[in-house]
Write a structure and sequence with these properties.
The complex is a heterodimer of chains A (161) and B (550). Chain A has 161 residues and is of the alpha+beta class. Chain A has one helix spanning 5-30; strands spanning 58-61, 69-76, 79-81, 84-88, 92-99, 104-108, 114-117, 123-128, 133-138, 151-157. The longest helix of chain A is centred in the first third of the chain and has 26 residues, at 5-30. Classes of the chains: A alpha+beta (161), B mainly alpha (550). Chains A and B meet through helix 1, strand 6, strand 7 and strand 9 of A and helix 6, helix 7, helix 8, helix 9 and helix 12 of B. The complex binds protoporphyrin IX containing FE and copper (II) ion (CU) (2 copies). The site of protoporphyrin IX containing FE has 27 residues of chain B, from helix 1, helix 2, helix 13 and helix 15. Chain B: InterPro entries: Ba3-like_Oxidase_I, Cyt_c_oxase-like_su1_dom, Cyt_c_oxase-like_su1_sf, Cyt_C_Oxase_1.
Chain lengths: 161, 550
């Protein structure tokens, strides 16, 4: 098929940029580890309260791992447990969350933490909280009448103060 | 293209197409009103009267505008387009279309009734394990099955044309309808499987549990193709109708066909880009589908090139000089051109936003924030819808035997500018506050007076201002619609179909070889989906019972 000369330039430039873009995204993902939350761990959603670590929601200090804290979150209509956490600034946190009923969201405003919580699955994400302040966590997947009241609060604090 | 033989859509086909248009515009009226209520509620200055829930209103809005308006308009437009370019339907084909139309309408009424009874406040994506009444799911099934009747009639007409015109290239517009219909059929198989094998028996109590990850994956197998199903009819108008409206020629028949084939191929094996932040699907397969998603940039660039080439060639023919002088020569007073042109222009920011959404890691910044709502009010509710309005302004009078008067033409242009103005405000505010983390699909809330949530409120008031202007736009287009249906003077309005530029190359035969393209499509789907679906099935957790949290 014949292409007009300008069209050839246009498509060459376009497809070239596209390839470059995808290579950059790919390197960032698979070389530098910037991956979206994609845990494949499963759980019986009806037994969440009885299974570790979800039997004890909250922030826990851990040793010998790539992260300093584990934040265990249990979502259900229309609340998160715990409702509030205090996180020392600069610490690396692994968020481990799941739901006891329907699908919920987990979006922390002002950060890149954003993941879906689905019944039967454990969602995980590792991140570093490097700025102090209060961060509102909202449920950003419709879950029922009380959806817009479902929230949690992160207080990222400077422990040396 | 031998379209000269069928200048006018047959009366009987016109009635068929118009039936679809009535439903589409009724859906626009109802859905638009819901949109207005939503922005009011979200501003925090207004509460819904007794017992009406925000999410019930939002379900009506999504179903009416995302599913009913689009499907009915598109199928009606396609029926007229096939009849116009390939000849009138046979009695059997027309009957099949009517049967399909009534099944779809019945399905719409069933689903709508359940939503109004507050038995299906599950939003238009009906994600399990929220469980709606079975009549809601059955209604959706009817909409899909009805649509199959309508597109099968259109495909049958095409097959008949091919048989009667052996060795010739089919009319371009019919060809595009075929590509879009095939895509629709393959995509709806996914949602049909979700509803028929899982949600419907589950809501009836025949099965106790469904696998939530499977239902979502099947939904999005369909869901992304759904948005191309909205877009491609707009592209039909851009490629085939607009050149004629401005008095020019279609830049290239083969490029137009090739871009539709590329849309078809890369419409379905990409749905996981809506599930990037979900558990249960590994990074590798998410990334594979992200790459496939980005392939759509290629036909998009081709389309942009063709459009501007057509405009420039025509502008220069009319004596336009210099780098941009040809722009002035275009018919800026003709609603059939101006309204879709604004839609095209809106696609530039809309497409840029889409690239961000699909960008693997960046998706986390915007996923399920109101940014996404801002995004698709630019794509579907501006680019696609303004093009549909632009189509309606000649199609409706063509079908009803009336004309678009200069007054209505003027009103149509005012309508488009009203829309643009309102949308810029509403969508702009949604994009901006979405970046701050404000969630979509959420009623008014200060989240216990959280500082961040309080910062979002001015943007929500801006959305209410923009949304009100938009609603004004809906009233204007409804006035024009009513005029064109029943009040405009009788006359002959043209159904514009462009001819191919005489310098364009002959179109390669392979583009009409559907066996090849369907094979490639199925292969791509298998590559993109087999492993992720097997992973979910094999590693899947205990399924979910239904919940009714509204
Ligand atoms: C008067 C004009 C309109 C206004 C004021 C409006 C307003 C809105 C608002 C505020 C939302 C988000 C609500 C939320 O997430 O809480 C929304 C969602 C939506 N709108 Fe519109 N809209 C209008 C027209 C349209 C049109 C013409 C279409 C389609 C052609 C459309 C399609 C949608 C869809 C599909 C959703 C998503 C529903 C969901 O998330 O379940 N809207 N609209
Ligand atoms: Cu929620
Ligand atoms: Cu998509």
């Amino acid at each position: 098929m014949h292409l007009h000369r300008y069209e050839k330039w246009w498509l060459t430039f376009g497809i070239g940029s596209l390839v470059l873009f995808l290579v950059i995204v790919g390197i960032s993902a698979f070389h530098q580890g910037h991956q979206p939350p994609s845990s494949v761990k499963t759980i019986n959603y009806e037994q969440v309260d009885k299974v570790a670590p979800f039997n004890e929601p909250g922030l826990k200090k851990v040793e010998g791992k790539d992260w300093d804290y584990e934040l265990v979150v249990v979502a259900s209509a229309f609340m998160y447990m715990p409702t509030e956490v205090e996180i020392p600034v600069g610490s690396t946190v692994k968020i481990i969350a799941t739901t006891k009923d329907v699908v919920h969201g987990y979006g922390v405003a002002g950060t890149n933490i954003n993941m879906m919580l689905e019944p039967g699955y454990v969602s995980e994400y590792v991140t570093t909280m490097d700025k102090t302040g209060e961060y509102l966590v909202v449920c950003n997947e419709y879950c029922g009448t009380g959806h817009h009241t479902m929230k949690m609060m992160y207080k990222v604090v400077d422990v040396n103060e | 293209m031998n379209n000269s033989t069928f200048l006018c859509v047959d009366k009987r086909d016109a009635r068929l197409a118009m039936a679809h248009m009535y439903v589409a515009f009724a859906a626009l009226a109802i859905g638009g009103l819901m949109g207005l209520l939503q922005v009011f509620v979200r501003s925090g200055r207004f509460e819904l009267p007794a017992n009406i829930g925000y999410y019930q209103v939002l379900t009506v809005h999504g179903v009416m505008l995302g599913l009913v308006l689009t499907t009915f308009f598109i199928l009606g437009f396609q029926a007229a387009a096939v009849s116009r370019t390939s000849g009138t339907f046979t009695a059997k084909q027309r009957l099949a279309s009517w049967i399909g139309f009534w099944i779809m309408l019945l399905g719409t009424v069933m689903s709508a009734t359940m939503i109004l009874l507050n038995e299906a406040t599950v939003l238009y994506t009906f994600y399990a394990p929220l469980q709606a009444h079975w009549i809601f799911y059955l209604g959706l099934t009817f909409i899909v099955v009805g649509s199959w009747f309508v597109i099968f009639a259109q495909l049958a007409k095409y097959a008949q044309w091919r048989k009667e015109n052996k060795g010739e290239m089919s009319p371009l517009l019919t060809y595009m309808v075929v590509a879009n219909s095939l895509m629709w059929f393959v995509a709806t198989l996914g949602v049909a499987a979700e509803v028929l094998l899982q949600l419907l028996p589950w809501s009836l109590g025949f099965i106790e549990r469904v696998d939530v990850a499977i239902t979502r994956t099947l939904f999005w197998y369909f869901g992304h193709a759904l948005v191309y199903f909205w877009l491609l009819p707009a592209y039909m108008a851009w490629y085939v109708v607009i050149p004629k409206v401005i008095g020019g020629k279609i830049f290239s028949d083969s490029l137009a066909r090739l871009s539709f084939i590329l849309f078809l191929l890369f419409s379905i094996p990409v749905g996981i880009h809506h599930q990037l932040t979900e558990p249960g699907i590994t990074e590798f397969w998410k990334f594979v589908q992200v790459i496939l998603t980005f392939m759509v940039i290629i036909p998009s660039l081709m389309t942009a090139f063709s459009m501007f080439a057509t405009f420039e060639l025509r502008g220069r023919e009319l004596g336009g000089k210099g780098l941009f002088g040809w722009l002035h020569k275009l018919p800026w007073g003709d609603a059939r051109f101006v309204v879709p042109f604004i839609g095209m222009a809106a696609f530039i920011p809309a497409g840029a936003g889409g690239i961000i959404n699909a960008s693997y890691q960046m998706n986390q910044v915007i996923h399920n924030t109101i940014w996404v709502t801002g995004h698709f009010h630019l794509t579907v509710a501006t680019t696609v819808l303004l093009t549909f309005f632009g189509i309606a302004y000649w199609l409706i009078p063509h079908l009803t035997g009336r004309i678009l008067t200069p007054q209505m033409n003027k009103l149509a242009i005012i309508q488009a500018f009203t829309w643009t103005f309102g949308m810029t405000i509403m969508s702009g505010a949604m994009h901006w506050v979405g970046l701050l983390g404000a969630p979509r699909r959420s009623s008014y809330s200060t989240y216990g007076d959280a500082e961040q949530a309080l910062e979002w409120i001015p943007y929500q008031i801006a959305q209410a201002v923009g949304g009100t202007i938009l609603f004004l736009g809906i009233i204007l287009v409804l006035i024009i619609f009513v005029n064109l249906c029943w009040f405009a003077p009788k006359g002959d309005e043209e159904f514009p179909v462009g001819a191919i530029d005489k310098d364009a190359e002959k179109t390669p035969k392979i583009l009409e070889n559907w066996k090849v393209w369907i094979t490639v499509l199925v292969a791509l789907i298998l590559v993109a989906y087999t492993v992720p679906i097997m992973d979910i099935i094999n590693g899947g957790p205990l399924g979910s019972k239904g919940f009714k949290f509204w």
